[in-house]
Amino acid sequence: MSQARVLYDLQQIDTEIRAKKQRLGEVLRLQKEPAALVAAREKAQAAGEDLRQWQARHKALTGEIAAVTDKAKRSEERLYSGTVKNPKELTDLQHEIDALGRRRAALEDDALLMMMEIDERKGVKAAADTEVERLASEFTNASAALRQEQQTLALSLNTLLEKRAKQVPLAQPALLKSYDDLARQKNGLAVAGLRNNKCLGCQLTLSASVIRAADEGRLIHCENCGRFLCAI
Ligand SMILES: [Zn+2]
Questions:
Q1: Residue 217 has what pLDDT?
Q2: Which of 96, 134, 202, 221 has the fewest CB within 10 Å, making it most exposed?
Q3: Cα(207) to centroid of ligand 1, in Å?
Q4: CA angle 30, 36, 37 (to 5 degrees)
Q5: What pLDDT score does 196 carry?
Q6: What distance in angstroms lies between residue 229's CA and the mean position of ligand 1's atoms?
């Protein structure tokens, strides 16, 4: 096998490796959670936190109502127990009971308003949770296909690398070095096919002497782009 063909075959392998590595990178990037899902999750978390704070406030208020109710009850018991005889003290007790009643009514109004706020926030949280579920399920379906593709890519890359390892020893070491240098300069394409008198690397028509040399299997460079040529 001519060195031109050896390098050309190596080029085919390397081009495929390059494309598959690039796609693998994309596939890995696409498997990251999309920004919309991350944002939806943060929103749901904030809604949950907001709801918890309102529920805690409501609980504290309920405790306060119970304390006021209890205090009023004890004062009433005292008022009707018959143990308090002093009229001034009895009047004070009655005033205190009235004040506690007003306080309780006000607190109960607050608690009612608070329950409405809580209901509204429950709705906000439920909507946010639904959106998270929707986006998460969308993402799960998409990532299943991507994971499959990732596996397929990894397997074919493995095969290609094995193929490359077998191909490399067929090339003369000095040519291999030129191949690597050229590949770096020419965006990964060091060897171009020669077909219909044209270099497929730069699409230019080549001179008769270059075409003849390539046809004879000699390793030659394209006069225009400088790549190795291989008649195909
Ligand atoms: Zn060329």
A1: 87
A2: 134
A3: 11
A4: 80
A5: 95
A6: 8
Q: Read off the amino acid at residue 187.
A: N
pTM: 0.67
How close is the Cα of 232 to the center of ligand 1, in Å?
14
Closest CA to 107 of 95, 99, 120, 49: 99
CA 193 to centroid of ligand 1, rounded, Å: 9
Run means of pLDDT, 10 residues per run, the chain, 232 residues? 95 98 95 94 98 98 98 95 92 96 98 97 98 96 93 98 98 96 96 96 95 92 96 94
Cα R_g (the chain), whole angstroms:
41
Distance 34 CA to ligand 1 centre (A): 43
Euclidean distance between CA atoms 208 and 210, whole angstroms? 6
Task: Delimit the domains of the chain by residue range.
Answer: 3-10+172-231, 31-169
- CATH fold, domain 31-169, is Helix Hairpins (1.10.287)
Residue 1 pLDDT? 84
Residues with CB under 5 A from ligand 1 (ion): 199, 201-202, 222, 224-225
